[in-house]
Amino acid sequence: MYAIVDIETTGGYAANNDITEVAIVLHNGNSVVERYETLIRPARAIPYYIQVLTGITPEMVEHAPAFEDVAEEIYDLLKDCVFIAHNVNFDYSFIKHHLSLNGYELEVPKLCTVRLSRKVFPGLLSYSLGKLCSHFDIVIENRHRAGGDADATVILFERVLANNGQEHVDKFLKKGSREQYLPLFLPREQVENLPYTPGVYYFHDQKGKIIYVGKAR
C-alpha cells in the first residue's frame, strides 16, 4: 500500500516548526482506497508569508485539532505503507518528528515523485509539482493546500506507473531513497526551484559573502 502525503507547515525545519495541514491518500497501486485530510492547530504562529502562500490563516486553525489529537490516527494510516511525497524528505521529516514527539516512531520506506519523474520523464526543464502538472495537464485544485497538492501527486504517481514506472519504483525501494541524505532544514520551495541544467553556483559564508564560485557541466 502506498500513502501519498502532503503537508503545510509554519516553516521549513521540522524541529522548530509545526504542521498546519495534513492530507494522506492511500493507494493500492491501481486506485485510491482511502483519503484523510485535516487542518492542524499549530503551537506556533503562522508567518504572514505562509498565510499568503497557503491561504491558511490563524482563524482557520483556531478550532482545528492539535497534532497530538490526531497523531495516533495518522500513525495508523502510515505505519504499513510506502510513504510517497513530492520532495519526500520535507514531508517525511515533519511527520516523523511530530509523531515521535507524541510517542510514535515512524520507520517506513519512502519514495519521491521528483526522483521518479526524473527517471520516467527525463529532459523536462523543471520537476516542481506545479510545472509537472502544467506539463501533463493535471489540474491542481487548491494549490499549496495539502489536499490539493496530495491529489495532484496521486495523479502524477499514477502517470508514472502507467509509463512503466513500476520498475523504477521497485529499484528505489530496493536500494532505499537517497532523499534521506538531503538536509532536513531545506525549505521545500528551495528544493523545488533548484535548476535542472548546468550553470554557475556560489558558496556563501554565514555573512553572505561569496567564498567560492564553481561551474556545473
Number of helices: 9
The CATH superfamily label reads Ribonuclease H-like superfamily/Ribonuclease H
What's the number of structural domains? 1
- Spans of at least 5 consecutive residues whose pLDDT stays below 50 are none
Helical content (DSSP H or I, runs of 4+) = 25-40%
% residues in beta strands: 15-25%
CATH class: Alpha Beta
Give the overall form. Answer: globular
CATH topology: Nucleotidyltransferase, domain 5
Report the radius of gyration as a whole number of Å: 18 Å
The strand count comes to: 7
Give the helices and strands as they follow along the chain.
EEEHHHEHEHHHHHEE
Largest sheet: 5 strands, mixed
- Helix/sheet category: alpha/beta
Mean model confidence by pLDDT: 90
Strand order of the largest sheet: 3-2-1-4-5
Distance between the termini: 39 Å
Q: What CATH architecture do you see?
A: 2-Layer Sandwich
Description:
The chain is α/β, with parallel strands linked by helices. The chain has one domain: Ribonuclease H-like superfamily/Ribonuclease H (Nucleotidyltransferase, domain 5). The chain has nine helices and seven strands. The chain has helices at residues 48-54, 58-61, 67-78, 88-101, 113-120, 129-135, 146-162, 166-175, 188-192, and strands at 2-9, 19-27, 32-39, 82-85, 110-112, 200-204, 210-215. It has a five-stranded mixed sheet with strand order 3-2-1-4-5, sandwiched between helices. A two-stranded antiparallel sheet has the order 6-7. α5 packs parallel to α7 (146-162). The radius of gyration is 18 Å and the shape is globular. 33% of the residues are buried. The mean pLDDT is 90.
